[in-house]
Structure formats: C-alpha cells, structure tokens
Amino acid sequence: MFIGPSQLKFKRYHKQKLNYSHVEKSQFVNKFGQLGIQACESKRLTANQLEAVRRTIRRGLYDKKIQIKINTFPFFGRTKKPLASRMGKGKGKHSHWEANVYTGKILFELSQLNHSCNYFYIRVLKKAMKKLSLRSRINLLKF
After folding, report:
1. What secondary structure letter does DSSP report for 41?
2. 53: DSSP letter
3. Which residues pair with 80 in a beta bridge?
4. Residue 136: CB partners within 8 Å, gap ≥ 6?
5. How far apart are CA 45 and CA 3, in angstroms?
6. Would you state the CATH architecture of domain 37-77+93-140?
7. Which residues does 82 contact at the CB level (< 8 Å), separation at least 6?
8. Cβ distance 10 to 91 under 8 Å?
9. pLDDT tens across 20-79, in order?
C-alpha cells in the first residue's frame, strides 16, 4: 500500500530541524482511542516503517472491529543523488517519503477494545514498536 501525499506545492523540501522544544500539548493525549504508541524521541520515520507497524498491528488483532488510527503522515519527500555523481547539477531524484516525529507525539491509536483483553493488546503493540527506529512507549487511556 502506497503511503505518500497525492499533491504537493513543491517536490523537494529542505530538511527540518527535529530538536524543537515546543510541542503542542494536544499531541500528548489519545484523541481517538484507548491505547496508543507514543514517541519518546524526535526522529524521521519513513513511509515503509509506518506501513510495517500498521501491518503488524492489523495482523496481531484478530478482531476486525478494532479501529487503528495513524496520527502521522509522511509529507516530506527525501532526495538522493546517484552514486559516483559529481557535485552540482541540482538536487537529486526523489528517493522516499518521511514523516517528522517529535517527542511525545502519539503515532498510532486503537479504539473499540474489549477491556478484558488488555494484556493481549499491549503485547501486540510491543511487537509493533520493534518495527520503529525510535524509542517509544505505550500510552494508556480510559482503561
């Protein structure tokens, strides 16, 4: 499944800094579900990593009524110049899509959970967190 924007104003963006100290408080709270994965550090996640986490969660949950909400989206395209190319001649070709993730942001949320299976859902989220390239934790709400 392709994850990336359908339209952009510019094809190639500058890299943004990820050491922002100001993060919105609304990113710390589960808005949609009862369980979530929260980032503990700032990093860039590729579209392939986000898709791998989504697939791992969906395969681990046998109940298809449970909804998964993805709160991050890879808006930023990254470029890469080919190997053994000389300096100059513009920016490189598009390589992949990335999402900038800041400390404390909720990445994934689960809703419509059966409260008797809390341990099972936490085990599925821990398995999915191994696919991420950043430190993260499970955020519990409304249990």
Report:
1. S
2. H
3. 93
4. 37, 38, 39, 40, 107, 129
5. 12
6. Alpha-Beta Complex (3.90)
7. 92, 93
8. no
9. 655 555 566 667 778 899 998 889 999 999 999 999 999 998 877 888 989 888 888 888
- Average pLDDT score over the chain: 84
pLDDT tens, position by position, 74-92: 888 888 899 989 998 888 8
**Contact by Cβ (8 Å): 70, 107:** yes
The length of the chain is 143
For every residue of 58-85, DSSP letters joined together read: HHH---TTSEEEE-----EEEEEPPTTP
Using the CB atoms, write b or e for 22-42: b if 16+ within 10 Å. Answer: eeeeebeebeebbbbbbbeeb
